[in-house]
Design goal:
Elements (H helix, E strand, L loop, with lengths): L7 H23 L10 H5 L4 H10 L18 H10 L2 H4 L2 E2 L1 H8 L14 H20 L4 E5 L5 H10 L2 E6 L2 H23 L1 H7 L20 H20 L13 H13 L22 H5 L19 H21 L9 E5 L8 H4 L6 E9 L2 H11 L3 E9 L27 H5 L6 H7 L3 H5 L6 H17 L19 H12 L8 H11 L3 H31 L6 E6 L10 E6 L9
Parallel strand pairs: 1-7, 2-3, 2-5, 3-4, 5-6
Antiparallel strand pairs: 6-8, 7-8
């Protein structure tokens, strides 16, 4: 991995290439759809008909220049722009390292459970991929603590603690989220009780050696029948449902707010049965030390209720069963502590705190040790703040950050910003290289960076009609109201409207404007006038989608450049962690400054 292709100089050259391209094309990304008709955006930027744009996007012809006229700065060759846009995206620049290669070099501690076993497809995909990288970094840096900034509902935290035995501190500014994460842990105990009540069914479904002993670490993935897992999950779910009908309290702030997420956690507990390499070794010479239930063995002692031994009830008296149960639990507790587990079994601690680059982690985490810092879809300025904390805090030996919500980034050199925050807290640019050049993108361009090219290409496109309605409404506000730049927001009126006329009436009421100035016929007349030009808006927005990866690429290259500028960061890279169709914000920034690491530039 010590390649000149990934050196600081090489990254700066890539940044220059993207900047050159965006200096010509960024005006399209910064055009606001609301102003599309009031500012005659199409004629302002385009010198080709919209049908040509849509045709070329479909054909994706191959040429090598940018496609803009030097004199008018208007787009004259769509195919050239498309080729240039791809060439200046992260895949086209070739700056992302192979995740597979990194995982081979880092040595994954243990295989994770099948992503289809729990959560919805998007969240399980993200948690599985991210947890592999985080667990590998923790192993490489020889740490047991993970700090998840912007942890939200705690999905990643829970999985890292359960699957890999890591001590995870999930920090979120929302007390609702942290309370929900605590409720999630409470529900894990409830699920474990459901498993205990169905231990007999589990014994029937699971093949157990005659001795009643079973070495979990020797069981390869897939050896247990998947249908058995589903049946056990169903049993647990029924038991949980029964408890709920009996009046168990439910809070509005719980993480598991819908049926899918409840099914997810039930399936997670079953999936953990497949394999877990973080369990302490048991004394196989003593039958009482054999795991009573694979699920219980996968959880730390503090997270489960007492259980019965894996011996047929007819063979033991009630007193003997109780005695052996207590001895077994005590033995597991001692073994867990001796194997390096967290004393007391508390592996996941949700914390409520507002975090910035200047936050003292020791003030939040009393037992702070060397740790890996992570952020899964940290919003706006929190992602660059995570990287700043990683650089500034000696306890943080590694970082894996996946950002999102680029439109919420604060830009140090954006001339249109209303407030002037301190340069130390601005989210962009982060690197000294771009700060020296006073580079800025603009809010509309950062909004465009949030668009999902891969999804649009697969037909999961933009809600064009809602954008069209909003742009025509802007024309009406300009023509009939003295001030059409209202402080109030139209909001999500489109989803409730039955027609364009209904949409306008709802919007006027939301904006508290005089409805007597308009009639249904006048409103419909605006719709009919601009409807033939809707194709212009569609074509223009497709161009914005095409430019989105380039803008996102510059933001992420800036973050990577920042890490490479730090002398004590011995390794840094960009890695595509997720499938962009499932999770469009799919790139992770990884950095390591741990002494003794085998990774180097």
């Amino acid at each position: 991995m010590a390649s000149s292709m990934n050196s600081l100089e090489a990254i700066r050259e890539k940044i220059d290439d993207v900047k050159l391209f965006l200096s010509v094309s960024l005006s399209i990304a910064n055009a606001h759809t609301v102003d599309f008709y009031t500012c005659d955006v199409w004629d302002q930027f385009m010198a080709v008909p919209p049908v040509e744009v849509l045709t070329e996007i479909t054909l994706n012809a191959k040429k090598i220049t940018f496609g803009f006229c030097d004199d008018s700065k208007r787009l004259v060759d769509v195919a050239e722009l498309l080729e240039a846009a791809y060439a200046h995206s992260l895949p086209g620049l070739g700056v992302c390292d192979s995740l597979t290669l990194h995982m081979c070099l880092l040595t994954v501690p243990s295989a994770v459970v099948d992503s289809d076993e729990f959560m919805n497809s998007k969240k399980s995909h993200e948690v599985q991929a991210m947890s592999e990288v985080v667990a590998s970094l923790a192993q490489r840096c020889r740490v047991k603590q993970v700090i998840d900034v912007g942890s939200g509902k705690g999905y990643l935290c829970s999985f890292l603690s359960l699957q890999y035995g890591l001590q995870v501190y999930g920090i979120d500014s929302s007390s609702i989220n942290t309370h929900g994460a605590q409720e999630r842990n409470r529900k894990l105990k409830k699920y474990s009780r459901a498993y205990q009540r169905h231990s007999k069914a589990n014994r029937t479904l699971t093949v157990v050696p005659p001795s009643g002993q079973e070495d979990l670490e020797d069981i390869a993935p897939g050896e247990r029948d998947r249908e058995d897992m589903v049946k056990m999950s169903g049993d647990a779910e029924k038991e949980v449902g029964k408890g709920r009908r009996d009046g168990e309290a439910q809070t509005n702030t719980t993480v598991l707010t819908d049926r899918n997420e409840e099914d997810a956690m039930t399936s997670l507990t079953s999936a953990i049965l497949l394999e877990d390499n973080s369990l302490p070794e048991l004394d196989q010479s003593d039958p009482a030390s054999a795991p009573e239930d694979p699920f219980l063995s996968a959880l730390c002692v503090g997270m489960v209720e007492p259980t019965s031994p894996r011996v047929p009830p007819s063979e033991l008296s009630l007193e003997e069963r109780e005695r052996r149960k207590r001895e077994n639990l005590e033995r597991k507790a001692r073994s867990w502590v001796n194997s390096g587990g967290m004393g007391g079994g508390i592996l996941y601690s949700p914390l409520t705190s507002y975090v910035t680059a200047d936050t003292e982690l020791k003030d939040i985490i009393g037992e702070l040790e060397d740790a890996v810092m992570v952020g899964l879809h940290t919003c706006g300025d929190l992602a660059p703040s995570t990287l700043r904390m990683f650089v500034a805090k000696q306890e943080l030996l590694s970082v894996c950050s996946v950002g999102c919500c680029y439109h919420l980034l604060s830009e140090e050199f954006d001339p249109t910003r209303q407030e002037c925050p301190s340069s130390s807290v601005c989210g962009f640019p982060l690197s000294g290289y771009l700060r020296e050049q006073s580079w800025f993108c603009g809010r509309n361009a950062r909004m465009s960076a949030c668009l999902a090219l891969e999804r649009v290409a697969k037909g999961q496109g933009i809600q064009m009609e809602s954008l069209f309605y909003r742009a025509v409404l802007h024309v009406i506000l300009r023509d009939h109201y003295s001030s059409f730049k209202s402080e109030k927001r139209v909001g999500n009126v489109y989803s409730k409207a039955t027609s364009f006329v209904d949409y306008v009436w709802r919007a006027l009421r939301r904006l508290e404007l005089d409805e007597s100035k308009l009639s249904d016929d006048v409103i419909q007349g605006y719709h009919d006038t601009y409807r033939p030009r809707m194709v212009e808006m569609e074509a223009f927005n497709m161009l914005k989608v095409t430019l989105a990866p380039c803008i996102e690429g510059l933001i992420l290259l800036d973050r990577l450049c920042y890490l490479k500028e730090q002398e004590d960061v011995v390794f840094s890279t960009l890695v595509q962690l997720f499938d962009p169709l499932l999770s469009p914000r799919c790139y992770g920034v990884v950095g390591v400054k741990a002494p003794g690491t085998e990774l180097s530039e």
